[in-house]
Amino acid sequence: MIVKNFIIPIILIASVSCSDKTEVPAETADNKITLPTNPDTLTYRIFYTDSIGWGYDVFQGSKLMIHQEHIPAIQGMKGFSTMQKADKAAQFILEKINRGLFPPTLSVTELDSLDLI
Fold it and tell me: Domain limits of the chain?
């Protein structure tokens, strides 16, 4: 009886914690977002970290696809300097994904032409 009451919950917890899906709550402490229920819908969220700066998350439905804390293609761990620049980068990444480019990348040339660096 003890084995049954102890082992089964451990197995259930282990199987749930090993899932590769990253579910994101519809509301977070720093900002409120509502993620679409359609698993094919692409959305993004802009966030700020004190140590790095502005970044973005890209979601497909409620699954986190990309967590971008720092400016891609730039050496070091530096985030975007403004929320508007992180927003512009996230929109550009969504455009690339919608055109079938995955994983989407940003080159130094693209960052410069978008006035993000």
Answer: 23-113
